[in-house]
Design goal:
single chain, 21% strand, 169 residues
């Protein structure tokens, strides 16, 4: 069945549709690059992640009126072992209940896994009553953390173990 529309008009309409499809595709590619680019940028390298995590946790504790935490290398070494296990496993659960660091007593562990920024991780902890009790524990004196980042396809993931300890008086 022949269209009543002249052939030149059909060709012009086809060209117009192609332009819209190409323009839409270009917009989709730019949007994907921005979104995926921001995901990769959102998770910084492990050292920077740990530093930003330290700053975000210190800010959250200060805002809650709780004393700042001292860094503990021994606790960080224990956290590093846990972070390595978390990277290899599909499920992340707090596993550190004691540390061989003098008379330090574990207040709790806060694991992280995914594509979240350090600031978002701390914000998530403060919204969860269980994690908030650990992150903002007034009896915590020191902390140690270890983070590992790795990339799959175009995304950078992070696994961390953050351990807070107290020292009996």
């Amino acid at each position: 069945m022949e269209s009543a529309e002249p052939s030149w008009a059909r060709k012009k309409a086809r060209r117009r549709r192609r332009r819209w499809i190409l323009a839409g595709g270009a917009v989709a590619l730019i949007a994907a690059a921005v979104i995926f680019g921001s995901i990769v940028e959102r998770v910084p390298a492990a050292e920077e992640y740990t530093q930003r995590l330290s700053e975000a946790l210190a800010t959250a504790r200060s805002d809650a009126g709780v004393a700042a935490l001292a860094w503990n290398d021994c606790v960080a070494a224990e956290a590093a072992e846990a972070a390595e296990v978390y990277e290899a496993s599909l499920r992340v659960e707090a596993s550190i209940t004691e540390v061989p660091c003098g008379d330090a007593v574990v207040v709790g562990e806060l694991p992280i896994r995914g594509i979240t920024s350090p600031e978002d991780a701390v914000a998530t902890w403060t919204r969860s009553s269980y994690r908030r009790d650990i992150a903002l524990a007034p009896d915590a004196d020191a902390w140690g953390a270890a983070c590992r980042t790795y990339e799959v396809d175009i995304r950078r993931y992070v696994t961390c173990s953050v351990v807070l300890v107290s020292y009996p008086s």
